[in-house]
Specification:
Layout (H helix, E strand, L loop, with lengths): L5 E3 L1 H9 L4 H11 L2 E4 H8 L5 H11 L3 E3 L3 H16 L6 H13 L2 E3 L12 E3 L4
Parallel strand pairs: 1-2, 1-4, 2-3, 4-5
Helix pairs in contact: 1-3, 5-6
Length: about 130
Amino acid sequence: MAANPVLVDSSFYIRAARDGYDPLLRLAPITAVRDVAICGVIRCEVGRGVKVQKVLDRYNAFWNVMINVPTDNRLWDHVGKMIWQLDRQGIVLPLTDVVIACCAMRIGAVVLTHDDHFYQIPGVRATDRID
């Protein structure tokens, strides 16, 4: 696919579910035209809030066919440098958001999010909708 991949942040899944929508159905049109990615942090953040095992199994099946961004030593080095630089600038963000941002940067992805923290991280392209 020609367009940059999309890394779907936890906030997208959580807001869709909270608003009564199926997040996976909301993502279906995007998966038709873009590669969609996941990382372990997002899997865990979303998964921990799912109450029904059958729903979690459905999410996992969906996530298992996405691009998985590995969190290896090189990524953790990037996260450490990024969070240190942000802290020195007075921008104190949750570690999980910086990990997700670094995962997106690793694969050149746009972060689909409802979390304003991603707009504060240099080098991250974030949006709340993919048209």
